[in-house]
Amino acid sequence: MLRSSVTILLLALAACRTLPPERPQNLLLVTIDGLRWQEFFGGAQAELIDAEIGGVQDPAATSNRYLRETAMERRNLLLPFLWTQLAPAGVVFGEDAAAPARMSNALNFSYPGYAEMLCGIADPRVRANDRKPNPNPTVFAYMNQQPDFAGRVGVVASWDVLPWIHDSAEQGVFAQAGWTPMLGGEEDASVRQHNERMAGLPHIWPTACFDALTLDAALLYLEREQPRLLHVAFDETDEWGHERRYDLYLDAARRTDAFIERLWQKIQSMPAYRDRTSIIVTTDHGRGELGQWTEHGALVKGCDRIWIAAMGPGVFPRGTRGEAVTGAQIAATIAELLAADFQQVQTRAAPALPLGPGL
Ligand SMILES: [Zn+2]
Question: Which residue, among 50, 66, 68, 48, has the nearest Cα to 255 in the 3D structure?
Answer without folding.
Answer: 66
